[in-house]
Design goal:
This protein is α+β, with helices and mostly antiparallel strands. The protein has two domains: 113 residues, Beta-Lactamase; 209 residues, Heat Shock Protein 90 (2-Layer Sandwich). The strands form three sheets. The chain has a five-stranded antiparallel β-sheet, sandwiched between helices. Helix 7 packs antiparallel against helix 8. The longest helix is centred in the middle third of the chain and has 45 residues. The protein is elongated.
Length: 340
């Protein structure tokens, strides 16, 4: 967009005409009858006017009459009364040509010496700029659609892999191998769940309350064979975080839920509850997963850290948080604490 230097009240009419004629920006100098006193060559080139015959022509007669716009005339008359047109947008409709979007600025030139006042009107054609902006928006939207489609396909592929793992678990004879395959199935399903949830989102921001509710509902459906025996409950505040952080938190929740289901309720008839909670404040945030199961083993029954523990520790360090494990009496409580 081209700009002009405002003309001060002591600018002479002759100098104003000279500036208009030599301007590289599309300019018109108008009198109180809204007739053209002078036009820059750039204006004539841009809007198909003859610079030799344009002077003295009413603006309404310019071209094929496309400048005969009542609202524009009202604004220009108001400018002679002391008002100003500042970045006024209008459409110029011309026969046989595309509609042009124009941005108008008008300034009153009052010479202060008895000469008739003039209005300096600048006209900028922003049609191509708007087309370029729309094209960019369309490309961004298309990219987002393609990305969401890719995320859906990744989630579907992960679910297929999980199904293959489950089929393999049914065929193997070794209990240890079956356990490893089941754990792998749960982890792949959790990642597929996270991927599907992110594919639904249209932005990089994730609301944790809904995110954890949907994640826990999916984990419960895929990992708890009897929802009346063991319940998985999620609570969270109104925190909104970036998608990459939500993935790490989701994986941590998945690993801790898997661990609770494996160790907290060893009896097939034992009832229990697993709680997932997220709370943020000025001092930081805390993610907790607790259960009311048998609690932490002690002595020779104490469990050695496994793959899940390593994953939780690594992801927590990546988030700048620490892992705290405490006896929940009954049950176990694992807290991921991030201090701001």
């Amino acid at each position: 967009m081209e700009f002009f230097t405002p003309l001060h009240s002591d600018t002479s009419p002759g100098l104003a005409m000279a500036l208009v004629a030599s301007s590289q920006a599309p300019l018109l100098l108008l009198d109180e009858d809204i007739a053209i006193v002078g036009a820059s060559r750039s204006f004539c080139d841009a809007f198909g006017c003859n610079p030799d015959t344009v002077n003295g022509l009413p603006l309404s007669k310019l071209g094929a009459g496309e400048w005969d716009i009542p609202q524009l005339y009202t604004l220009l008359r108001a400018t002679f009364g002391g008002a100003a047109i500042d970045s006024y947008e209008m459409d110029l409709v011309r026969a046989g040509k595309d509609i042009a979007r124009l941005v108008l600025n008008a300034l009153l030139l009052d010479y202060g010496d008895g000469d008739e006042p003039r209005v300096l009107l600048t006209v900028t054609d922003v049609t191509m700029a708007l087309v370029a902006a729309k094209l960019k928006d369309d490309m961004v939207q298309e990219k987002e659609i393609l990305l969401q489609e890719l995320q859906h396909r990744v989630a579907n592929s992960l679910q297929i892999i999980a199904s293959v793992l489950m089929q393999s678990a049914r065929r193997v004879q070794s209990e240890e191998s079956r356990t490893h395959l089941h754990n792998a199935h749960h982890r792949v399903m959790s990642i597929a769940t996270l991927q599907k949830q992110l594919a639904i989102s249209t932005s990089d921001d994730v609301a944790l309350r809904k995110y954890f509710e949907e994640l826990c509902a999916s984990l419960g459906a895929s990992m708890i064979d009897n929802a009346e025996r063991i319940s998985l409950i999620s609570t969270a505040d109104d925190t909104i975080i970036k998608a990459n952080v939500s993935i790490s938190l989701g994986l941590i929740v998945t690993e801790l839920v898997i661990n609770a289901l494996k160790h907290a309720f060893p009896g097939r008839n034992q009832q229990g509850r697993i709680n997932v909670n997220y709370l943020a404040g000025a001092s930081g945030w805390t993610l907790t997963v607790d259960d009311d199961g048998v609690g932490m083993p002690t002595g020779h029954d104490e469990l050695t850290p496994g793959l899940g523990t390593g994953i939780v520790d690594a992801l927590s360090r990546q988030l700048g948080a620490t892992v705290q494990v405490t006896d929940h009496a009954p049950g176990t409580k694992v807290s991921i604490v991030h201090v701001a």
